Amino acid sequence: MRGGNGIKPDMEAAKDWLSKGNESYNNDSTYALSKLLLQQAHLDEDNARKAISWLTTAAASGHTASQRELGTIYLLGTHTETDYEESAYWLGKLLD
User: Fold this and answer.
1) pTM for the full model?
2) Is residue 2 part of a domain?
3) Which of 18, 25, 32, 69 is the least buried, fewest Cβ under 10 Å from its Cβ?
4) Would residue 76 count as lying in a domain?
């Protein structure tokens, strides 16, 4: 059993709670939900599309972890086409 305090990990419950944070425009929740969806992208390709969309929203509002994640996704072509311009844009935001 992983997690904390004897509680078994529950991915669906995690998604539900993080979605609530995402709905209230909490960038940390949006980032965490996106990372969870990317981990499960092999189960449903729509997860990757949603995750990238939400990462873009958080990154555009200045969330640095989202900017780094997006830059890496576009640089490596993970879950989407490789796009060096987009990668440079998001990674460059980290320097602003």
Assistant:
1) 0.75
2) no
3) 25
4) yes
